[in-house]
Specification:
The complex is a heterodimer of chains A (850) and B (145).
Chain A (H helix, E strand, L loop, with lengths): L3 H9 L9 H37 L6 H25 L6 H17 L11 E3 L8 H4 L1 H11 L7 E4 L1 H7 L2 H13 L5 H16 L5 H14 L6 E8 L14 E5 L4 H10 L4 H10 L7 E8 L3 E8 L13 E8 L3 H4 L6 E6 L4 E6 L9 H18 L3 E8 L4 E8 L21 E2 L2 E4 L2 E4 L1 E3 L3 H4 L7 E4 L15 E4 L7 H9 L3 E3 L4 H9 L5 E4 L4 E4 L3 H4 L13 H11 L22 H23 L7 E4 L6 E5 L14 E3 L6 H11 L11 H13 L5 H8 L3 E5 L3 E8 L2 E8 L8 E8 L4 H17 L3 E5 L2 E7 L3 H17 L10 H24 L5
Parallel strand pairs in A: 15-16, 16-17, 17-18, 21-23, 22-24
Antiparallel strand pairs in A: 1-2, 2-5, 3-4, 3-5, 6-7, 6-10, 7-8, 8-9, 10-11, 12-20, 13-18, 14-19, 19-20, 21-22, 24-25, 25-26, 26-27, 27-29, 28-29
Helix pairs in contact in A: 2-3, 2-20, 3-4, 3-20, 8-9, 9-11, 21-25, 24-26
Chain B lengths: L7 E5 L3 H13 L3 E5 L2 H10 L4 E5 L7 H11 L4 E6 L4 H9 L4 E4 L4 H32 L3
Parallel strand pairs in B: 1-2, 1-3, 3-4, 4-5
The chains are: A alpha+beta (850), B alpha/beta (145).
Chain lengths: 850, 145
């Protein structure tokens, strides 16, 4: 199909077109050359953005939809430029690419803009009629609370302002304005984040609840409560049900709300969706704002005598202890002090079954909870754990009449346990501090930075250890950046402890006078090590404790944003068009944006390569380079890459005929040392290669033999060079544009493939990466694929790097076969470094060079 | 710093800080530059003025960048437009290119990148104008006297 327009033309107009004049040909060629360069630049940019997108996806840091959108836009625009340039170069061929690109773009758009589907339901639902099934209507927290009531456990009376009601309240213009604010917020810029959040929350607070809704709210209040009853408005968000995501303490709870204050209490909870800590948390965990909707539970205040939090398991326990204990924190009055981490609490450690109190750590003289109350709580905890089939984090209160109320029950954030290492008393170094409560275990090292006020939070440096007096939930945005956290006050049951466990950062709370001890040492010691498992802080970097450091799982796992990126990547990065010699290497087989770039690149090179032949334009035809260097080298002069006065019809050129600055530099590297031939391969190595060949038909010896002789092309102009080295199983590409304008100059090197197994190919790629990094390249490595780049540097600097690339692309060939032993790798590393140094020194000492 | 040829630039962006800073930096580099805070005002200025290159934000109130681009190209086909975005929908990227935008820039970016892109766009416009002039000269010369 791609050839149809041309064939048709030839069919109807058999008459040959008039031959073009030399001047016209030159103009056509110049135009092609411009398009070709535009295409190559776009190719580089598209591949770079693809690599960045993949790095986001496979990396351990969080990313936002805005970043995904911007990368994908960059990829699409560059692919568009490639298609556009190729179409112009290829004179009517490959028009199918436009349709394919449009189709892929359209599908990407659908993926990126997909909104969660929501159920519509009543505006108000009584708590007594709610079960876990209703979580799409009333949010996770209230659905669970309704379910707790259904189990026969006591819960406060109340009703829920549902997601449908919130949707009615947040009218279109308000949402538009909030979205606009959300888009201009950069969560990394804390100052902007706090200001933007304030604006959005004020917008919500200033919005009137529609009167029809208010009537329903008042009617429900009057149905369930006496006129002077005080209630609490509590957040219950929708869309938070992914595994391992706690959303603990992000949103507001307003206590002691009376009938008059209902609207304000509800608005405050809805507004808290836009508080800084919630926005930072969603960003970190990969939730879009549209994925979360807020419902509001309006529940009776319990006249609490004692309140607290029950963990039905110990979240930091070792494997052996896990089944044994429940942990119960208790304070006098309402439980806010426990969950906010501002109050020291009684801690009771309870045995699961048969019930017993294993330990009491009291804050006062007398225990706040008696044995009977603890037993009642433990029974409730067991029931909840059994029903929800996972350890629970339960908020509870006993009123002054001794009645128990369950206020919330949610999955307990458990922590993976670490390797047991020698610390604490057995540790050879004395700790600066020992004590406190492990809120999240692990170890980290860094500067200690104290934060007392939100204004100071803005200046908190990444990877420092955070010290706060109390572990308040409002410090949660800092856990995005902190290596670890410790505090003077607080306990293990606060929201911040939950967030720390979830993020996998070490947290040690309740350390009392630790701050003075740290302050004293700060003059002489810069770094400290926090080992929250052994409950120790060491001056300096303590390698023994740091063995506890663990790989933090990607915080985005299974999140909506990760899911979107995963689906989008399917349309972007897989490469189906591997082999240009295959009959499937056609535009119609392009399924991804990567396929399109590969196709455009290959075809554009062909267009340039065939230009001389097709137009009888000998300047552009490929010429063989005669030189005393192994392999076959060919030169295609794109513009002014060969010396003036050269016989245009000549079929061969020597290196003296070349004036392309980048090509000459690469050639100096290629010719610097004779190639010793392929390294001797052990039987093991050879066996593996034969095995690989049987697994991958394109690597069969016949195919390889044909390709080993394939030609290597230099595409050149005075300041441009693109060298493709296709040697058997390897593919290397060097491209350089040297310009007096530094902003234009660039140099890229790609290296991929090999005949050995993935491990050895990767070792070779790593070896090359190490060497190139030494020489200022920025290097990206994925498996056996290497991409190295330098941009915006002076010409002589780039020439040196090109020599190194020339050297490496010749000498690193077939090395993958011997990359199975560390000493061999080291031997080659030393050889390469030595020879590169020698080569560059020789170059500097040449007459005429400084 | 390289010698810059003087040309006229219009910066259309509702983000005041970015707009004013860019205009200031362009003026500092010896170029003529003005700002407009939305697509509608930008379009009017293009219709009335003599701008070589427009730096145009995609997401703006009143009239968005894509609509403004379409109308600018209708009014002045030879004006070169560099689109600017921080959070555009993905589709608008290609849509903008199809409507004849010279290129795209993603926020946040360095001023040097902006300058480089503007110069490239101006270069394209200059070549285009030269060609037209050449064609007209040829036509003129081939006319019987």
């Amino acid at each position: 199909m791609a050839f149809f327009p041309l064939n048709l033309k030839e069919f109807f107009f058999c008459e040959k077109p008039e031959p073009l004049s030399g001047e016209e040909l030159q103009t056509i060629f110049q135009n092609r050359y411009q398009l070709f360069r535009r295409l190559l630049t776009a190719n580089n940019n598209a591949l770079q953005a693809m690599a960045e997108l993949e790095r986001m996806y496979y990396g351990s840091s969080s990313y936002r939809m805005a970043e995904i959108n911007s990368k994908i836009t960059a990829i699409q625009i560059n692919v568009y430029k490639m298609v556009n340039s190729l179409l112009e170069m290829a004179e009517g061929k490959y028009t199918r690419l436009e349709t394919i690109l449009d189709q892929i773009s359209h599908n990407l758009e659908l993926i990126l803009n997909q909104k969660p589907e929501r159920q519509q339901g009543p505006f108000i639902m009584p708590l007594s009629e709610i079960s876990f099934e209703d979580r799409e209507l009333v949010g996770e927290k209230m659905a669970r609370l309704g379910e707790v009531g259904r189990l026969g456990l006591p819960i406060p009376t109340g009703f829920v302002f549902t997601a449908s009601a919130t949707r009615k309240f947040l009218h279109a213009e308000l949402i538009d304005e909030i979205n606009r604010q959300l888009q201009i917020i950069d969560p990394e810029n804390l100052e902007g984040l706090y200001a933007g959040c304030h604006t959005m929350q004020e917008l919500v607070r200033d919005t009137t609840v529609p009167s029809s809704l208010m009537e329903e709210i008042y009617a429900s209040f009057d149905r369930f409560f006496k006129k002077d009853q005080k209630i609490a408005t509590r957040s219950s968000a929708l869309g938070e049900d992914s595994a391992g995501v706690s959303f603990a303490g992000l949103y507001a709870t307003v206590l002691d709300v009376d009938r008059e204050g209902l609207a304000a209490g509800i608005r405050e909870v809805i507004a808290s969706k836009y508080c800084p800590r919630a926005i930072a948390y969603r960003r970190r965990r990969g939730y879009r704002h549209v994925d979360i909707e807020m419902c509001v539970g309006c529940v009776a205040m319990v006249n609490a005598a004692v309140s607290g939090v029950l963990y039905t398991r110990n979240p930091n326990a070792t494997q052996e202890e896990k089944g044994e204990e429940m942990r119960c924190n208790a304070v006098e009055g309402i439980g806010r002090g426990v969950v906010e981490g501002t109050r020291d609490a009684d801690l009771y450690i309870l045995r699961h079954e048969p019930f017993s109190v294993m330990e009491r750590r009291l804050t006062g003289e007398h225990p706040l909870l008696g044995e009977a109350q603890l037993e009642e709580l433990a029974a409730a905890g067991r029931k909840l754990e059994k029903h929800f089939a996972t350890p629970q984090d339960v908020e509870w209160s006993f009123d002054h009449d001794g009645h128990l109320f369950i206020l919330q029950s949610r999955p307990l954030q458990m922590q993976e346990h670490h390797e047991v290492v020698e610390t604490g008393n057995n540790h050879p170094v004395a700790p600066l501090y020992q004590g406190g409560i492990t809120a999240s275990d692990g170890a980290c090292c860094g500067r200690i930075v104290r934060v007392d006020k939100p204004e100071q939070a803005k200046a908190f440096p990444a990877d420092a250890i955070l010290y706060v007096e109390y572990p308040l939930p409002e410090w949660a945005p800092l856990l995005n950046r902190a290596a670890g956290i410790f505090s003077s006050g607080g306990n293990e049951a606060g929201h911040l402890a939950t967030v720390a466990r979830e993020f996998g950062i070490p947290a040690l709370f309740g350390c009392g006078d630790v701050c003075q001890k740290v302050e004293k040492m700060r003059a002489t010691v810069e770094e400290f090590t926090l080992d929250s498992t052994a409950r120790c802080i060491y001056p300096g970097r303590d390698e023994i404790a740091l063995r506890r450091q663990h790989v933090i799982p990607s915080p985005m796992t299974s999140s909506p944003v990760q899911l979107i990126l995963s689906r989008a990547l399917q349309l972007i990065t897989p490469l189906n068009l591997n082999d240009p010699d295959s009959i499937r290497f056609k535009s119609t087989f392009c399924e991804t944006l990567h396929d399109i770039t590969r196709f455009c690149h290959e075809k554009s090179v062909m267009v340039m390569f065939n230009f001389g032949g097709n137009y009888h334009f000998p300047q552009a035809a490929a010429k063989r380079l005669t030189a005393d260097v192994p392999l076959e080298w060919w030169v295609i002069n794109l513009a002014d890459g060969l010396r003036e006065g050269l016989d245009k019809k000549t079929k061969t050129v020597s290196i003296e005929d070349v004036v392309s600055v980048p090509m000459l530099a690469i050639w100096r590297g290629i010719a610097a040392f004779p190639w010793a031939g392929p390294p001797p391969v052990s039987m093991r190595g050879l066996g593996s290669i034969i095995f690989q060949s049987t697994m991958r038909p394109e690597l069969s010896p016949d195919v390889a033999a044909a390709k080993l002789n394939s030609r290597n092309f230099f595409l050149i102009s005075k300041y441009f060079c693109n060298l493709g080295v296709r040697l058997g199983y390897h593919y290397a590409m060097i491209e350089a544009w040297l310009s007096e304008l530094r902003t234009e100059s660039y140099l890229t090197f790609r290296f991929k493939g090999g005949a050995a197994d993935m491990h050895r190919k990767s070792v070779r790629a790593r070896l090359l990466a190490d060497i190139l990094e030494r020489w200022d390249f920025s290097v990206e490595l994925r498996g056996d694929a290497l991409l190295a780049r330098i941009k915006k540097m002076p010409i002589d600097f780039l020439e040196e790097r090109l020599m190194i690339l020339g050297y490496l692309s010749l000498h690193a060939r077939q090395l993958d076969m011997v990359m199975d032993r560390a000493e061999t790798v080291e031997k080659y590393r030393q050889k390469f470094l030595r020879e590169i140094d020698e080569m560059l020194a020789r170059e500097k000492n040449k007459p005429g060079n400084k | 710093m390289t010698e810059m040829k003087k040309f006229n630039i219009l910066v259309v962006d509702d983000e005041q800080e970015f707009r004013e800073m860019t205009v200031k930096q362009l003026l500092h580099r010896g170029m003529e530059a003005e700002g407009a805070e939305d697509g509608k005002i930008g379009l009017e200025m293009v219709e009335e003025g003599n701008f070589d290159v427009v730096l145009l934000d995609v997401k703006m109130p009143v009239m968005d960048g894509i609509k403004a681009l379409r109308k600018m190209k209708q009014a002045k086909p030879l004006v070169e437009v560099v689109l600017l975005t921080g959070h555009a929908s993905v589709d608008s990227g290609i849509e903008g290119m199809k409507l004849g935008a010279f290129d795209y820039l993603m926020k946040p970016m360095e001023f040097d990148e902006v300058l480089e892109k503007l110069c490239d766009a101006f270069e394209k416009r200059r070549i285009h104008l030269d060609k037209i002039e050449m064609a007209q000269m040829k036509k003129h010369m081939s006319l019987p006297s």
